[in-house]
Each structure stands twice: as C-alpha cells, then as structure tokens.
Give the backbone structure.
Amino acid sequence: MSLHDRRKAPTLTSPGRGGAAVTIDDVTMRFGDRVAASNIRVDVAPGEIVSVVGPSGCGKTTLLRAVAGLIAPSEGSVKVDGETVDRTPEGVGMVFQHFGLFPWKTVEANVAYPLRLRGLPKEEIAARTRELIGMVGLSGFEKSYPHQLSGGMQQRTGLARALAVRPRVLLMDEPFGALDAQTAEVLRFELLRMWEEHPITMLFVTHSIDEAVLFGDRVVVLKGRPGRVHEVIDVALPHPRDRAVARSEEFAALRERVWSLVMSPDAGQAG
Amino acid sequence: MTVLTMKAPAGRDVLGKVVAVVVLLGVWQVAGSAFLPDYLPTPVGVLAELVPTLTSSAFLSALGETVVAVLLGLVLGCVPGTAAGLLIGRITWLRQLSTPYISGLYAMPMLAIVPMATIWFGYDDTTRVIVIALSAFLPCAVSTADGARSLPANLGDVARVLNVPRSRFVLDFVLPSALPFAVAGVHIAVGRALVGAAAVEFLANLDGLGTFILTSARSFAQNQAFVGVAVLALLGVLARAGTERLIRRVAPWQQTHQD
Ligand SMILES: Nc1ncnc2c1ncn2[C@@H]1O[C@H](COP(=O)(O)OP(=O)(O)O)[C@@H](O)[C@H]1O
Ligand SMILES: [Mg+2]
C-alpha cells in the first residue's frame, strides 16, 4: 500500500522520500487591480513538506490554487517535476478546509470517485477504496453520508479521496481549520504518521504557527498585503514528528522564532 | 429565500393542537348557529354535507376537471421550467439576459394575466392549462437555476483538481446538486398551480372545483361550498407534504429549502 505511484516512488519495501518537485517561480497573483501575492519563489524538493504560514488574507489560498492549476499566475510560473502547470497535473491531490465532499455520496463513493473517473476495473476500485478507508480509520463508516459524520470524519474522507490518485504532491489548504481543537490535534499526528510511512511532497498552508512548525521541513513565512515571502525557516526537528517532538525545547524555540516573524511590525498586517 | 426547517412536531405538541382545534370548532359552531345560521357554514352542517357532496356527480366531475388540468399544467410547466433553470444556472450570459424578466414575472401574481389569457386563448380548458403551466414554470426555473449555479462548498474546485470532463461534470456535479432545488421548485409550483386553477375557473366559469365552490356559495349552500374549499386545501397540503418528503429523500443533508 502506498500513497503514490509504485513506478515513480518508493514504497514500504524501499524506504525514502517519494513525490514530485514543485517550483514556484516568481509568482504574482492579481485579481483586477488587487494584488493577492507578489513575487513568490519557493522550491519544494521531492518528498519535502513546506509549510506556508501567514495572517489571514495574505494570499495563501490564492498561491495554493495557483500551484493546483485552478487559477493561472498573473506573472511567473508554477512547475511540477519541470512541467509548467496550466491545469491540475496528474498526481496532484488537494485537501480543502471545508472538505469538498459530495453530500449525496457515501464515504465509500466519495473516496472511490477519482478511481471511477479514471475507469479502473471494479474489483480494483473496491480493493483500493477499502484500503484507503482503513488507512484513514473510517472502516465501518463506508455506507455513511457526510452529513451523518463529524467534521473530523468528513476530513478523513477528504484525505482518503485525495490519496486515492496516489498523489506525488499533496496540497493542503488549512485542512484542520474547520475542526475543533482536539480533533485537529488527533488528525495532525495521524497525518504525520501516514506521511512517515509514505513520504510525498506536501505544500501545507495554515495560519497556525504550531502546525506550520510541526509539519514543515521548512516554513515559508508570508507577510503583508500583497503577501511576499518574508523569511524561510529550516526546521531541523527529528522525524517522526510525534508528540515528543512537539514538546521539545527545539520545537518551542522554532515556534517562538516563527511567531516573532509573523508578528514583526514590518510584517505589515495593515491594509 | 425564507428558511423553512422541516421537522416533525414532537408528540406533546400534538395534544395542544388537538385541544386548540376542538375549542375553535366549538366556538365556530355556537357562533355560526347563534348569529348567522343561513350565511355561515358550521362544523355540524359541513359534517352532514360531507358524504352527499363528496359522492355527488357535480362535485366529482368538478374535482376530476381540476385535478387533470393541474396535473397536465404542472407537467407542461415544471418540465421546461426545470430545464430552463439548469441552462440559466450554468450559462452566464443567459442568466444575465433572463434574470430581470424571470424575477419580474416571478414577483407578479399570475391572477393578473387571467383576464387577458381568457381573451387570447378563449374561455376554455386551454386557458386554464396555460395559466397553471405558467404558474408552475417560474418557481421551477428560479429554484433549479439557484441549485445549478451554486455547488456545495469546494466542489467546483474538486471537479477541476480531478480534471473532470465537461459531460461528467454536468452528470456527477451539476445534476445531483440541482436535484433537491428542482424538487423544491415543484413544491412551490404545486401551490401556485392550485391557486391558478381556481382563479381561472372563477373568472372563466369553467367546470372545476373553483366554480363548484363559487356556485355553491351563490346558491347559499355554504356547507357544500366549504367542503369544496376543504378538498382544495387538502389537495394542496397533500401535494406539498409529498414534495417535502421527496426533498428529504433526495437530499437528506439539506435542512432548508426554498419557498
Ligand atoms: N477570486 C478572487 N477575486 C478577488 N479577490 C480575491 C479572490 N480570491 C482572493 N482574493 C483576495 O486575495 C487576497 C488573498 O486571499 P486568500 O488567498 O484567500 O488569503 P488567505 O488564504 O491567506 O487568507 C484577499 O485580499 C482576497 O480578498
Ligand atoms: Mg485561505
């Protein structure tokens, strides 16, 4: 079982980091006269997690949507494994803050949808769907509808669906932002555990400083409106990122550092 | 859009409602027989007239005429109305072009066109079906357009991230999300269709429930007229309960619908 394509990425039997390289090359995003993000450069190595943190409205979602190919950059370009993105490349999965589930489909049907779309054989779809639902801890809820589930369980479904395509890149837009604090905490460590088993490239957008440090191999701090890259912090915390890491002094020091960057007066929250 | 929560009344509410109805009927009976015995229908009188009226050939033929016209009008109005709603919801220029007319017509009471319609189409069944169809067309178009335009949160992005082809997008995203709105459109259309039917019957003197009520009332058969009114109301209540159940069935996740 792997999150990604066996041909292109390591599996359990060959540990290492899989996934694609993502290049955000001098991207500026404009909506009419309004600039949402300005001259963003970020290189994400295969299998790396890069967190993007910044105050609300600094262009995090806009940037992520550009990486997903949902909106074209006004200037600059986004490349996934060297290929310029003009629509969502094969093997890029996305997890949304508000889950984006089909309300009229069961958990099972939601997770299976990307596989059905690709016209895979029925047995393969059934087997893979069962595997994914097991992986996110939803076994027993296959026939439930999203409205019958808690927010945390809905996001587990969203995650399973994003993983169905064996993504090389996972784009996360505040995936735990709509959940209560405890549920978010549980899901964070579960996602990290899954990632440790099958490391793939991840771009993790959040406004939570803790979350950014916990997930990131690097943390990109955006500032101002329009958002610009204020600083990029290397996070040399050990893997796996579990509770022990989150309690360490190094973690606290890094969090302090990111906090002061986000809060620094020249981070320009005005406007 | 008013928000209507669809919840069954709790058991203890029922007792209160029964008591209220009994008290109301008692007051009505006493007042009716004491003050205006020949002008007001009374509960006892209505009860006595119930079976004779419901089994009379005049009533049954009137009921049949109205029900057939309403069903025919609903089909002729709701089918194209829903189709138009889908197009209006998904095609931006069509929406911009049609919105002022649709909302204008939607706000106008259909009663206003009945006198003209009788002149254009004649004092016959065609006019009745046309007015009913028009009354049904608009709510179906407006509600379905709403549903087709607004996908549930993030679903539009989901379609694009998965590179869903256009035909699959309509089939897997637009139609299922519009379905409960389409049923909600029919829900509103049913009420408007019954009003439209009764109005045309009053004004054009067509055989039907509306005329049955009018004739009965004018011949001082108040109890009989009231039976007609009650049947008309019951038709509306039953039809709306049916569409409401249908909405809950096709969209159990939706707590609200349009009215
Ligand atoms: N579709 C859009 N049209 C116009 N302005 C937009 C659009 N999407 C986002 N913006 C603007 O771009 C800025 C950044 O928004 P967003 O990327 O959502 O920020 P964040 O996710 O960091 O909170 C905001 O000022 C927002 O109003
Ligand atoms: Mg955002």
Observations:
- Chain A touches chain B through 26 residues (CB under 8 Å).
- The helical segments of chain A are 60-67, 107-117, 122-135, 151-164, 181-197, 209-215, 243-247, 249-263.
- Chain A has eight helices and ten strands.
